[in-house]
Amino acid sequence: MAEPVSKGRRLIKFLFVVVLLVLLFGGGAKMIVAGGAKSLNMADRLLGQGDGARLLLGDQPYGRGPRQSLDIWVPDDAKAGDRLPVVVFFYGGGWNSGERGSYGFAGRALARQGFVVVIPDYRLAPKAYWPDFLVDSAAAVAWTHEHIAALGGDPDRIALMGHSAGAYNAAMLALDPQWLRAAKSDPSIIRGVAGLAGPYDFLPLEKGGRAEKAMGKVRPIENTQPIHFARGDAPPLWLATGDEDDTVRPRNSQNLAAAVERAGGAATLRVYPGMGHTGIVMALAAPFRTKGPVLEEATDFLRGVTARRIAPAAKAAP
Q1: What pLDDT digit, counting tens, does each position of 259-291 carry?
Q2: Quick one: 12 exposed, middle or buried, by C-beta within 10 A (0-12, 13-18, 19+)?
Q3: Model-level pTM greater than 0.85?
Q4: pLDDT band at residue 308, thresholds of 50, 70 and 90?
Q5: Among residues 26, 78, 124, 237, which is most buried (max CB within 10 A)?
Q6: What is the DSSP string of 63-121?
Q7: In DSSP terms, which residues pair with 260 in a beta bridge?
Q8: Residue 105: half-sphere exposure toward Cβ, Cα within 13 Å
Q9: Are the beta carbons of 227 and 259 closer than 8 angstroms?
Q10: Gyration radius of the chain over CA positions
């Protein structure tokens, strides 16, 4: 009986794939976009590679709150004694939506590139307000630094990555040391940040917009802006945007990259032609990688900043 059951499962999966292919190439990609990250995650699961990454740990608390948990993805062949580079990925959603379970496509994509990938939830508006989501993001990074060695990761090789509001969270942790210090961690543990379509310089806030609802009452309001904390000794930044992004304008990435460079720091700006706000994160998922080399270029940067550092040779005694 086992063989007919197995064939039946394969047939069901095949039919799912056929339906998805019809949607994708029959103009239905917009339907997947409309379905949000959850639909994108499903498409990636069914149309992507069947191996190469696995969920090592799900629903792991990093704090005591209901949205203070994380998932950890690793390469298929990862072992507990490994010391793999680590990426903490923060999803977007305008600080009022999102859940880590919908971003398995990002975890799988990066884990297949050889990273241990941590995807935390964080508190959202309207129940939360600035800086709650930064406090949670810092706590997740601090937890990662403390515990990742037992899970195959290298605590000395941690980088951050995020999309949209998640890129904001990542940039704020890297540029303003107060958040990791408040989490009883060392800001220098961050090796670099890869930001996808992040809001970094968005004053004045749009009236009634998501940002105003999440942080509009903060004074001085400049304290909410990553560009306000641009500094020369910040971790290297890789800031990617699409020239058709009308949700978070490309000037956010352009302005922050310029400000960090003026301060003497390292910032790389990448503008993808013909790409919009959702397209840049969709390009991490298997069905949409042809949109642009986002995964390839982001992982090149992440590998560079998380490379093992070789201590200088001791000088010979005279």
Answers
A1: 999 999 999 999 999 999 999 999 999 889 999
A2: exposed
A3: yes
A4: confident
A5: 237
A6: SSSTT-EEEEEEETT--TT--EEEEEEE--STTS---GGGGHHHHHHHHTTT-EEEEE-
A7: none
A8: 26
A9: yes
A10: 20
CB-facing half-sphere around the CA of 251: CA atoms within 13 A: 5
Distance CA 104, CA 75 (A): 13
Which token pair is 203?
């004053």
Query: How many alpha carbons lie under 13 Å from residue 49 in its C-beta half-sphere?
Result: 14
The whole-angstrom separation of Cα 126 and Cα 194 is 27
pLDDT digits (tens, 9 = 90+) for 173-187: 999 999 999 999 999
Domains of the chain: 52-305 (3.40.50.1820)
Residues counted in the chain: 318
Give residue 106's Cα distance to chain centre: 8
